[in-house]
Structures are given as structure tokens and as C-alpha cells.
Write a structure and sequence with these properties.
single chain; alpha+beta; 2 strands; about 55 residues; extended
Length: about 55
């Protein structure tokens, strides 16, 4: 199962912006977002989540 987690790079290390249980040795794929696209993807993600939540109600 794929899971998307937001993170930032701080002092050369990737730090998750939310807590998550990641077993030791978990393989990850890191996609770097240009600064000018970050806001777009955050908004697109929120819009998608809002739509899914509305359908669950």
C-alpha cells in the first residue's frame, strides 16, 4: 500500500511533518517539489481530501 507523507529537509536530513510508524528498513521514494510548486500541491491535496471526506458523510 502506498502512503504519502509530507516532510522537509532540515540540516541535510528528511524530517516528517507528521508522526508515522515506519519499520526499520522501510523503502521510501522521495520526490523533491520546487518551492514555487509546494503551495499548489498542498492546496491540491487538501481539495482532494475535502472531496473524499464530503463523500463519506
Amino acid at each position: 500500500m502506498l502512503k504519502t507523507l509530507w516532510a522537509t529537509v532540515w540540516e541535510g536530513k528528511i524530517e516528517l511533518l507528521e508522526s508515522a510508524q515506519l519499520p526499520e528498513g522501510t523503502r521510501v521514494l522521495v520526490t523533491l517539489l520546487p518551492d514555487d510548486q509546494t503551495e499548489f500541491w498542498l492546496q491540491a491535496s487538501q481539495t482532494s481530501l475535502d472531496e473524499v471526506y464530503t463523500q463519506l458523510l
